[in-house]
Design goal:
heterodimer, A: 195 residues, alpha+beta, DNA polymerase, domain 1, 2 domains, B: 278 residues, Uridine Diphospho-n-acetylenolpyruvylglucosamine Reductase, domain 3, Enolase-like, domain 1, 3 domains, four-stranded mixed beta sheet
């Protein structure tokens, strides 16, 4: 991108890796990561909802410096402070050729998508939750998704979808549920063995 | 320095940050950006330049020494939600959302200096001190008195807030706030308590132009803890001590009333939940 020399001091150029692809960005130093992703790089997974960190429609997972990658609101981050960062949008969650992730499948199966503007943010936040908690309670799910707003108010189905995705993950990892194993063990040897 | 431009700097050490600030007079020091970016979006503030502290690793993290919990000014609020101070943890947990807390910092909360900021009553009740660093060294000042008006502090132009020191104690600490709704709300008013060794120290948010505490209120609160005063006494003492703002969110009368309620609530919790340390 060519920059008018009169406003050159408003621009900075820096690298970002977005969904695994190294990109070189030239943007105003005060521009948000969301603006850079959508308007300069054409990455449209993160949505512009409120633009000030309330709704989570722009949630992406960012690895900056030595920090563990974590989900944040792209609208609140000055993009130039993320020099060299790795940014994973909703496009990083599915497989190649548009294959959906298990969380996305659960959202579809549970009818957790209405108008859709919040969905990428919810799926991004829910995916991070399930990486940290294999078996989150309903309260933990609600706390983890507290920064994501659904303007269609479809929260019941969204929470159900996250519960369903968590259950499916546990069943895949361990086809015999824990409660069944405990019961079997206690029948065999008495209650002490179940602990 | 990760990136340096005439009007932008991304330093990696406090020394680089101070130098970058000296070279860019009038630059806004940005930590997480969670306050600055909305302000720019809405045009409520402008910035000639940014000096970002986001990549200064030395400013991020919490350590404990003999006396204090020492929080680097760039520590994200998400790093305080499990702090070994229940008041600080409660204030951090009720700040913004999980997606904001990973970027919002304790230093930004302090230097933004608005009376409704979540962490401020906790720091005032806990007797926090601030480490201010310039090219000539570090000075440590009490948090009490650091904020002089909404958005204004005693931080000099060539200084950075580098750490917040909160004294450790074995007592009871808590924080409460009320707002216009129960989710993602800015405090209409807020209050924090530290109760230790039989003495209660309260501090209030949005009870005046700056975070506010009062020896008179603490004397009545301590008497309430001991059963020598009534809740009505404490509400009356709070009503005299505070000078809350009147704005479209709430009237000064409502705030004065709510601050009394919160004060009684916190002292009641200290009495019932505080244990022998309180």
């Amino acid at each position: 991108m060519s920059v008018d020399p009169l406003v050159a001091d408003e621009f900075v150029t820096f690298p970002l890796t977005v969904d695994g692809v190294p990109r070189e960005v030239t943007a105003r130093w005060s521009e948000s990561l969301l603006t850079v992703l959508r308007d300069r790089l054409g990455v449209l997974g993160p949505k512009t909802g409120c633009g000030h960190g309330r709704c989570g429609a722009c949630a992406v997972r960012v690895g900056v410096g030595p920090d563990e990658p974590h989900v944040l609101c792209a609208c609140l981050v000055p993009a130039a402070t993320a020099v060299g960062a790795t940014v994973e949008t909703i496009a990083s969650l599915g497989g190649p050729d548009g294959e959906l992730s298990d969380v996305q499948e659960a959202f579809l199966a549970e009818g957790a998508v209405q108008c859709g503007i919040c969905t990428a943010g919810f799926v991004t936040a829910a995916t991070e939750l399930l990486e940290r908690h294999e078996c989150p309670s309903r309260t933990e799910i609600e706390e983890a998704l507290y920064g994501n707003l659904c303007r269609c108010t479809g929260y019941g189905r969204i929470v159900a979808a996250v519960e369903s995705a968590a259950r499916t993950r546990r069943e895949r990892k361990d086809p015999v549920p824990l409660t069944t194993r405990k019961l079997t063990a206690s029948l065999r040897t008495g209650p002490e063995a179940a602990e | 320095m990760l990136l340096a431009a005439p009007r932008f700097a991304l330093p990696e050490t406090p020394e680089e940050a101070l130098a970058a600030l000296a070279e860019r007079p009038g630059a806004v020091v940005v930590a997480g950006g969670t306050e600055m970016m909305p302000d720019l979006l809405w045009g409520t503030r402008s910035a000639d330049a940014f000096v970002s502290l986001r990549r200064v690793a030395a400013l991020r993290g919490v350590t404990v020494d003999d006396d204090d919990l020492v929080m680097g000014a760039g520590t994200p609020v998400s790093g305080l939600t499990t702090a070994p101070d229940a008041g600080l943890a409660a204030a951090a947990t009720s700040l913004g959302t999980p997606l904001v807390r990973t970027e919002a910092t304790i230093g930004g909360n302090v230097v933004s200096a608005l009376p409704y900021r979540n962490l401020l009553p906790t720091l005032l009740a806990g007797g926090a001190r601030l480490e201010l660093t310039s090219a000539t060294g570090v000075r440590t000042v009490p948090f009490d008195g650091f904020i002089t008006a909404p958005g204004r502090t005693r931080l000099a132009e060539d200084e950075l807030l580098t750490a917040v020191r909160l004294p450790r104690h074995g007592g009871f600490a808590d924080y409460v706030k009320v707002g216009r709704r129960n989710a993602q709300f800015v405090a209409t008013v807020s209050a924090a308590v530290v109760s230790r060794d039989g003495g209660v120290r309260l501090a209030f948010g949005n009870a005046g132009p700056t975070p506010l505490r009062s020896d008179d209120v603490d004397a009545v609160a301590t008497a309430l803890l001991d059963g020598r005063a009534t809740p009505e006494d404490l509400r009356a003492a709070v009503a005299v001590a505070v000078d809350p703002p009147e704005d479209p969110v709430a009237s000064a009368d409502y705030r004065r009333h709510a601050l009394g309620v919160l004060a009684v609530r916190l002292v009641t919790r200290a009495r019932t939940d505080g244990g022998p340390g309180a």
